[in-house]
């Protein structure tokens, strides 16, 4: 199962919920949260780039006793800059022009496009043992991440709960009362893009509706500006997830599109 985050602060949990959370602090993306021995943790921090779009600034990952720090074009292991491919005690790190990939023998694959999109695949031995923005991986999709006893959270409250407190960092929590307005426009356009013949091999592999919803949110947030980030980030996520699920998306980028 896969948890991912991409584009305009979208998150998809292991259990399949999609939500948006615009925080720019350091957060627990996914960690093994068992009491006794925690096998791994992954933290991320986003920031707005010069175009005002959210990007992942760094990823901090602990796998058993190894600390890995990733930034675009930089891999640091236990405080040392390393060249890739790098292999050490059950962890393989590869880095190409676009993607950084980490394979961990304990049952995890991480893939980052060095910009906005991060995807983590976890072995199902971690079912019901994870916490963080990716949720608890218990197989129940109905937002049970956002329900604690009788209390239900919105996605911003939930995201803020995942913040990693660091003594000297100043960063503002997003305002919980400003939950993102839902958007009902642009459905036809999004549906047309995601059901084009290019993605014929994807339809049965992924939950199309979720990506249509994310695409609609993006289009609304862009207010009609012809901004490739708005349009392309969810479509590229759909394409990535399709390949990951064994599908073969066609070449969807053209000279005039994305």
Automatic annotation (TrEMBL):
PROSITE patterns referenced in this protein's UniProt entry, alphabetically: VWFD (PS51233)
Keywords from the UniProt entry: Disulfide bond, Glycoprotein
Domain VWFD: 1-172
Superkingdom in the source lineage: Eukaryota
GO cellular component: extracellular matrix; extracellular space
PANTHER family: EXTRACELLULAR MATRIX GLYCOPROTEIN RELATED (PTHR11339), MUCIN-2 (PTHR11339:SF371)
Protein's recorded name: MUC2 protein
UniProt source species: Aphelocoma coerulescens (Florida scrub-jay)
Classification of source organism: Eukaryota, Metazoa, Chordata, Craniata, Vertebrata
């Amino acid at each position: 199962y896969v948890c991912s985050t991409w584009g305009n602060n979208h998150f998809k949990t292991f259990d399949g919920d999609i939500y948006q959370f615009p925080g720019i602090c350091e957060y627990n993306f996914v960690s093994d949260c068992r009491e006794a021995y925690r096998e791994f943790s992954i933290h991320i921090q986003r920031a707005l780039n010069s175009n005002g779009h959210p990007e992942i600034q760094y990823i901090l990952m602990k796998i058993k006793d190894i600390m890995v720090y990733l930034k675009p074009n930089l891999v640091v292991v236990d405080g040392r800059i390393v060249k890739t491919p790098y292999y050490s005690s059950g962890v393989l790190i590869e880095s190409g022009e676009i993607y950084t990939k980490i394979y961990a023998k304990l049952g995890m694959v991480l893939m980052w496009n060095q910009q906005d999109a991060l995807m983590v695949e976890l072995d199902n031995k971690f079912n019901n043992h994870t916490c963080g923005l990716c949720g608890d991986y218990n197989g129940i999709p109905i937002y049970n991440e956002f329900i604690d006893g009788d209390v239900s959270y919105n996605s911003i409250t939930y995201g803020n709960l995942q913040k990693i407190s660091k003594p000297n960092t100043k960063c503002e929590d997003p305002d919980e009362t400003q939950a993102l307005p839902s958007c009902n426009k642009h459905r036809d356009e999004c549906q047309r893009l995601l059901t084009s013949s290019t993605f014929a091999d994807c339809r049965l592999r992924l939950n199309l509706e979720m990506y249509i919803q994310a695409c609609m949110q993006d289009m609304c947030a862009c207010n009609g500006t012809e901004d490739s980030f708005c349009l392309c980030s969810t479509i590229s996520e759909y394409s990535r997830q399709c390949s990951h699920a064994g599908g073969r998306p066609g070449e969807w980028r053209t000279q005039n599109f994305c």
